[in-house]
Amino acid sequence: EFQHVEHVLEEKTHAYRSVAERAERRLRSTVQQKREQFAKALDSLSTSSLPGRLKVLRDKHQLVGERLADIKAGKETVQEVLHAASDPNVMGEMSDKPPMTLEEIITYLDNWIHGLHDALSKVKKATYEGIWEAYHDYTVKTLYVWDREYLSRMP
Q1: Whether the Cβ atoms of residue 146 and residue 108 lie closer than 8 Å to each other
Q2: Which of 58-62, 94-98, 110-114, 129-133 has the highest mean pLDDT?
Q3: In 62-94, which positions are buried (b, 16+ CB within 10 angstroms) versus exposed (e)?
Q4: Which of 83, 102, 125, 144 reaches 20 to 30 Å from 135, CA-CA?
Q5: Measuring CA to CA, which residue among 115, 120, 113 is closest to residue 134?
Q6: pTM of the predicted model as reported, rounded to 2 decimal places
Q7: Is 153 helix (H, G, I), strand (E, B) or coil?
Q8: What confidence score (pLDDT) does residue 91 get?
Q9: Alpha carbons 145 and 139: distance in angstroms, whole number
Q10: 40 C-beta neighbours (distance < 10 Å), count
C-alpha cells in the first residue's frame, strides 16, 4: 500500500510540475509580449516629435534621457546606460537559461578578479584617479554585463 501511495504522489508531482512549467512558459511569453507592446508604444510616443538629428542619436543608443532619473540618483552611470543600450544581452529581458549555479558564479568572479588584477597592473604608476578610471572601465565592461545576465537568470 505504501508503494501505491508513493506512486500516486510521484504521478501528482509530475503532473503539478508539468502544469507549473506550462504556466511559467505562458507567463514568460505574455510578459515578453507586453514588454514589446509597451516598448513600441513608448517608442512611437517619444520619437514621433523628435527632430531628425535626435532620432539618429536615439537609434544609435547615444541618448540617456529616459534613464536620467537613475543617473541622477546614482543608480547608474552614463557609461553603464550607453553600454547596456548597445548590448542586446543586457536589456533586462528574462533569460531562457536556468539560474546560475554557485560554481558558475564562483568561476566567473574568480576570473573577474584575475582580470581586474591584470587591468590594474597596467596602471601601477597612475594617480588614484587613473586607478579608479581603470577599475570603473573594467567593471562597466565586465561585471556590469555579467550582473545583468545574473539578474535575468534569477528565478
Answers
A1: yes
A2: 110-114
A3: ebbeebeeeeeeeebbeebbbbbbeeeebeeee
A4: 102
A5: 120
A6: 0.43
A7: coil
A8: 47
A9: 9
A10: 10
d(Cα 114, Cα 18) in Å, to the nearest integer?
42
Nearest CA to 84 out of 42, 140, 134 is that of: 140
In the block, which residue shows the cell 567593471? Answer: 139
Say if residue 115's pLDDT is above 90.
Answer: yes
Q: Kindly report the length of the chain.
A: 155
Cα-Cα-Cα-Cα dihedral sign, residues 32, 143, 59, 73: positive
Q: 78, 104, 77, 80: which is closest to 91 by C-alpha?
A: 80
Going by C-alpha positions, the residue among 67, 83, 85 that lies closest to residue 75 is 67
Cell 539560474 belongs to residue: 99
- Three cell numbers, residue 57: 542619436
**Cβ-Cβ contacts under 8 Å for 145 (sequence gap 6 or more):** 83, 84, 87, 89, 90
- Fill in the amino acid letter for 58: R
- φ, ψ at 8 (rounded to 5°): -65, -45
Measured in whole angstroms, how far is the alpha carbon of residue 64 from the centre of its chain? 17
Read off the pLDDT band of 58 (50, 70, 90).
Answer: low
Grid-cell match 512558459, residue found: 25
